[in-house]
Amino acid sequence: xxxxxxxxxxxxxxxxxxxxxxxxxxxxxxxxxxxxxxxxxxxxxxxxxxxxxxxxxxxxxxxxxxxxxxxxxxxxxxxxxxxxxxxxxxxxxxxxxxxxxxxxxxxxxxxxxxxxxxxxxxxxxxxxxxxxxxxxxxxxxxxxxxxxxxxxxxxxxxxxxxxxxxxxxxxxxxxxxxxxxxxxxxxxxxxxxxxxxxxxxxxxxxxxxxxxxxxxxxxxxxxxxxxxxxxxxxxxxxxxxxxxxxxxxxxxxxxxxxxxxxxxxxxxxxxxxxxxxxxxxxxxxxxxxxxxxxxxxxxxxxxxxxxxxxxxxxxxxxxxxxxxxxxxxxxxxxxxxxxxxxxxxxxxxxxxxxxxxxxxxxxxxxxxx
Length: 369
Fold this sequence. Notes:
mainly alpha, globular
């Protein structure tokens, strides 16, 4: 029995040492990465089943129970297919592009608060980190389209770059409204500011001073809708999948890709879709908080309270993804000029006006965060 107290002292000392910090951080990263990859596998399966349900067909139902192992079968197929590189391609850039895309897509999860105490890096500028990573993500697509040495991939890469840059602007202004209400760039603190019930969520004006800020519901609810739609465009999801329009560009920037490099591009895109769903849950839907006051958690062990938060965060993220999949199944594809007009002439001025309204309201009431 005397061993357990000694082990606890040793473990605390080990965690405080540089080697222990590195081991703990690497283990944390590996755990979240493995869980994220498994989640993406089943998200892809769910996306296909939702699409099939809307079209009144079965979808994947052969590999494993109810087709649950279909994504793993696809993984095996991609891994054993021959890697073909076009003769005129820049081989180094051609292979580097999907690696950059998937690294940045998975790296963005480093600051996501998936549960109390479960973020890899709790930095005070988490929102700026996400802006930086999402801005760099377009380089992988541009490099892939250019290195393929073909017209269709190059056109798809140009479309994607213009589309992602255009909608990042409106996403940025929408996130500023949340930052103003929360008074911080830290994603963990933004989540904590929505504690206390659904009326505290920023989708409904909410925040710590919801009694005063509730009229902002008229502004923040449309901002949540704009964020959701902009997220579709940012991740090249239907009805904004113009960079990959099969009827026009065959498969966009990924035309010349196959085997593992194509799988990495697809993994990066799906990871970004789940990231945008999780980010909407954090910014507008209370993150890991339940829709009711959580005073009962004070009597729970810390690990159980964290698991409680993880469950609610996962439910909200999958709900946003479900809405994402339903839009993909129902809404027809936009023309490219319609896509750009929506971003620059509707979302940009609307979100800019919302920033002025929210900031003006906070100054007028003297409440802030």
